[in-house]
Amino acid sequence: MCGVLTMVEVFLRRVRFLLAWVLGLALSHPQAAFAVHDVTRAESAHAWWFWPIILFFFCFVLGVIAVLAGVGGGVLFVPLVSGFFPFHIDFVRGAGLMVALAGALAAGPGLLRRNLASLRLALPVSLVASACSIGGAMLGLYLSRLNPNLIQVCLGATIFGISLLLLFSKNTDKPVVNKQDAIGLALGISGVYRDQATKELVEWKTHRTLFGLILFIFIGVLAGMFGLGAGWANVPVLNLVMGVPLKISVATSKFLLSITDTSAAWIYVNNGCVIPLMAIPSIVGLMFGSLVGVRLLAVAKPKFIRYMVIGVLMFSGLKALDKGLGLRILG
Amino acid sequence: MTDKRLSEAARPMPEQITYANLLFLAVWVSILIMFITYFIYVTGIMEPHVPMEAVLQNWNLSVHDYLHNTDSPHGLGWLRLLNTGDYLNYVGLAILALITILCYLVLLPGYIRRKDRIYALICVLEVLVLSVAASGILGAGGH
Questions:
Q1: Which of A106, A173, A227, B63 is the most exposed, having the fewest neighbouring CB atoms within 10 Å of its CB?
Q2: Per-domain residue ranges for chain B?
Q3: Across the interface, do B142 and A145 touch by the CB < 8 Å criterion?
Q4: In angstroms, rounded to a whole number, what is the distance separating the alpha carbons of residues B69 and B60?
Q5: Min Cα–Cα distance to chain A from B31, Å
Q6: A252: closest CA among A206, A314, A285, A298?
Q7: What is the DSSP string of A225-288?
């Protein structure tokens, strides 16, 4: 029995090493993994099935990474696919939103059943964010029509900003909220959850609710404009600004995406920005990757992967800036 | 609050569980549909509206040019093309994008029964926002 366990452990270690190597290679320089860069200039040289297959495996890897790094799929999908694949950014954003939406919807049932996603918190916040994400989606499509480079530059700056946010933000496990503000009180945004680690029941309430809701206007606009999902922004605002415990913030944020991204996704779908040939393999690849990522979570080193993702985001942000400004320094 | 009341407060309301169950069912049904429709599309069982070669030649262009070059619809025009291999895939995508509206309609009676007027109103407003987005009224007329 002991021998079998050792063999399994060795096998898992090898798989982990191999995965880290492949992921590092694929994400730090997808051209090296897929030779995409050269092919973008001659995409017609490939049969139609080439890109969906590449996209499926690429998104599978992204799904694994996203779970291990604790970020949504959209925030990795949009900058990387727009930087290294031949698709126009309009279609990448459309697919990115569908990818983020599918991931959030798949996670929703578990979070709701365990009462980790708070409806009292999510409902008012999602109303603000989803209404604004419609505006963001329309603005994004308008700017893209005006000049696609404008969107690339804004996307690059946003992604670079997100990488800094991930690097420097220090979330608090259980923020201290001494007094609930009037809006939080009127909306009854409070709750109780059971901390599985300590088995204790934890009461929570919000403060600075109005400021938090105002910030969700910007989060909604950015989510719709770039098709990013917005978990990277939801969690710090819920946790650091509104004083919601980290576990509730993370779960509610994921659930929120299923609502925010729905409204923006419809704008992209109705504008013809979702091409099934590329969107379906992306969605399915990322969902399967997420399932594998959840299983690997127990044996992986999330800290290392998180830093790797921050590095990749920085690089892809700079790449988008480089592409948008027409500098072509990064190829 | 006493421990008993805290434990009760930590439990989700029944509508939340219905929301979760509905979501679970819809996600897996839509994934299954996506598999089937994508298979039908790529194997050519149903003729696509836009041939694969045309998709490949135009997906590096802006959506405006893509729609123009491939004679693709905007707004809810895809509904008329559900008999084609490519637009058939929109069925799974539409289920993913419609399920939240249905889930909110499940929540609404619970809030009305509890006389929680603010949250009932939020539910109604959210359904309106999502329905307007889905209707194709906004921003889908420019191509």
A1: A173
A2: 20-135
A3: yes
A4: 12
A5: 8
A6: A206
A7: HHT---HHHHHHIIIIIT---HHHHHHHHHHHHHHHHHHHHHHHHHTT---HHHHHHHHHHHHH
**CA-to-CA distance for A227 and A204, rounded, in angstroms?**
31
Tell me the whole-structure pTM to 2 decimals: 0.84
ipTM computed for the complex: 0.92
Q: Do residue B138 and residue A267 have CB atoms under 8 angstroms apart? A: yes
Rounded mean pLDDT of A294-312? 76
The size of chain A, in residues, is: 331
Q: Which two tokens stand for residue A253?
A: 């944020």
Q: How far is A206 from chain B (nearest CA, A)?
A: 16
Judged by CB atoms closer than 8 Å, whether chains meet at A108 and B57 is answered as: no
pLDDT band of residue A20 (cuts 50, 70, 90) is very low
Contact A218, A195 (CB under 8 A): no
Q: Are A268 and A74 in contact (CB under 8 A)?
A: no
- Contact, A201 vs A194, CB < 8 A? yes
Q: Which of residues 167-206 of A touch B (CB under 8 A)?
A: 186-188, 191-194, 201, 203
Residues with Cβ within 8 Å of residue A235, at least 6 apart in sequence: A171, A246, A249, A250, A253
* CA dist., res. A265 & res. B134, Å (int): 9
**A166 pLDDT band (50/70/90 cuts)?**
confident
Q: What sign does the dihedral B65-B68-B74-B79 (CA atoms) show?
A: negative
CA B9 from chain center: how many Å?
A: 32
Cα–Cα distance, A20 to A22 (Å, whole number): 6
Contact criterion met (CB below 8 Å) for A115 and A204: no
Q: From CA A6, how far away is CA B84, in angstroms rounded?
A: 53
The residue among B122, B129, B123 whose CA lies nearest residue B108 is B123
Amino acid letter, residue B64? H
**Dist CA B38 CA A276 (whole Å):** 8
Specify the residue for token string 């029944």: B14
Q: Does A274 touch chain B (CB under 8 A)?
A: yes
